[in-house]
Predict the 3D structure of the following.
Amino acid sequence: MNTKKKPIYNWANLSVFMLNISHGLRKNDEFKEMSLLDLKTHYHGMKFLNEVFIKIRITFLKI
C-alpha cells in the first residue's frame, strides 16, 4: 500500500482538531455527560436537520 506523508499529516491534524473541539464542548454543562460518540451524533443530526430545513426553505438553526 502506497501512502504519502501529506495526507497522513492532514488526517492527523484533523483528528487532533476534532479531539480538541470535543474536549472543549465537554466542559460545557449541557454536554458534560455526553460521550464523544454522543457529541458526534448530536452534531451530525443537527447538520442533517438544518439541511432539511434549508431544502424546505425554513431557516431555523445556525451551525
Residues 5-55 form one domain.
